[in-house]
Amino acid sequence: MRTIPQAFKTHLDGQATTTCHCWRVTRRDDVVIGFTDHDRDLSFDGTNFLAASGFEASESEQAAGLGAEADEVAGGFSSAAIEEEDLAVGRYDGARVELFLVNWTAPDERMLLNIREIGEVVRAGGRFRAELRSMAHRLNQPQGRLYNRRCDASLGDGRCRMNLAAWRGEGSVVEMIDRSRLLVSGLSGFADGFFRQGRVVFSSGLSAELDGHGRRQDGTAVLSLWLPLEEEVEPGRAFTVTAGCDKTFSMCRERFANSLNFRGFPHVPGSDFAYSYADGERVHDGGPIFE
């Protein structure tokens, strides 16, 4: 049940009201930004809510039960609010959005209308439109772990426990061949293909998954990306690149010598095996079926 402060309730019961909406966006890196559709900035709870940010909300339908509700918020890019680059690199993915109804003549009189998470974001023509999902959408997401032949840890995390110091390199961009290929320097000490399926992080915070790593005779290398970059990367931009893992038991054992920390189930038979029948060609000695 939503609680309305008595002073705010008295204001709402009056013949004339002075209310506006305020959004407080909390990113996963704990950066907090506030916006309002009022014509001047407001401040409460230690957050400044910026006016003239171009923020506007769509109509929203509320329903009883645990169905995942969703609405939208739209806005424009500005240096004082949200920058297009921040959205491009995913800094607002999964951000928490609190929507308040506020008496702009007395910001202490307010109420929390709902809490959402940012879902899909569409950018076009200097503006963005972000889907705001209710917290109930988490109930539709898989929880826990699955029995899978591939590892479900991330390379180098607390479950993998792999020290990535020897699997990481640093360099700088020589040329952006196109949005999917970069000519780089600084990786001459690594073999051809060493960083295939890895990840590159630029000094600006932009990151990308790698499809390939080709070493050239002059000491430079070409990094091929899985997806085209959202923005241009100028020559001289520094980066850090980390080798990748295809999550298979064979790579974990043979390349990284980390089979004790493999977080998959490589010896669990798949559905094809479950529907097969015993034949005279296989060795049935109770040993592992898959190497």
Automatic annotation (TrEMBL):
It comes from the Bacteria. Pfam families: Phage_BR0599, Phage_phiJL001_Gp84_N. InterPro entries: Phage_phiJL001_Gp84 (IPR011928), Phage_phiJL001_Gp84_C (IPR018964). Residues 193-272 form the Bacteriophage phiJL001 Gp84 C-terminal domain. NCBIfam families: phg_TIGR02218 (TIGR02218). This is Putative phage protein (TIGR02218 family). It comes from Aliirhizobium cellulosilyticum.
